[in-house]
Amino acid sequence: MDYKRTTADKTTKTRNLNEFNKVTENVYETVSMISKRANQISQDLKQELYRKIEEFTSQSDNLEEVFENREQIEITRFYEQLPKPTLIAINEYLNDQIVYRNDENGKGVVNEMVLEVQQAIENKENKERAKRAKR
């Protein structure tokens, strides 16, 4: 998912609690679901940021040769200005972009969140592990 084009708020705001009961009928389960999604988003953004910063790092970093790289600074600033992962996850929940499933017993526990993004993240992680293993 392209988090750079999200319509999520950049600041927190007061929400109607009833908006969070529509899928699970339990605020605590909803908060748990949003929290798990926020962690996924956070990991995805973190990996993306590290990949972009890695492009600009020099291979021979000596203490004397360390200098500020303008591109790295601009990339970091851009990511700092994005909405926080929690706000993105709340926005996804309110726009019905998170799929929720009950567990086998029907207790309504957040068992698994199925997202298109999740498979893409796993594929990226596997590719990065393979790259690290080759080094």
Largest sheet: 2 strands, antiparallel
Strands, total number: 2
How many helices does DSSP assign?
4
Give the integer mean of the pLDDT values: 76
**In sequence order, what are the helices and strands, one letter per element?**
HHHEEH
Measured distance between first and last alpha carbons: 29 Å
Give the helix level as a range of percent.
40-55%
Strand content: under 5%
Shape: flat
Number of domains: 1
| Rg, Cα atoms, Å | 19 Å
**Strand arrangement across the biggest beta sheet:** 1-2
Low-confidence stretches: 108-114
Helix/strand structural class: mainly alpha
Protein name: RNA polymerase Rpb6
Pfam families: RNA_pol_Rpb6 (PF01192)
GO molecular function, one term: DNA-directed RNA polymerase activity
Keywords: DNA-directed RNA polymerase, Transcription
Label this structure with key terms:
135 residues; 51% helix; two-stranded antiparallel sheet; 4 helices; single chain
Describe the structure in your own words.
Keywords: DNA-directed RNA polymerase, Transcription. It comes from bioreactor metagenome. This is RNA polymerase Rpb6. Helices cover 51% and strands 4% of the residues. The protein has 135 residues and is mainly α. It has a two-stranded antiparallel sheet with strand order 1-2. Helix 1 (27-54) packs antiparallel against helix 2 (70-81) and helix 1 (27-54) packs across helix 3 (85-94).
In short, what is this structure?
By secondary structure, the protein is mainly alpha-helical. The chain has four helices and two strands; from the N terminus they run H-H-H-E-E-H.
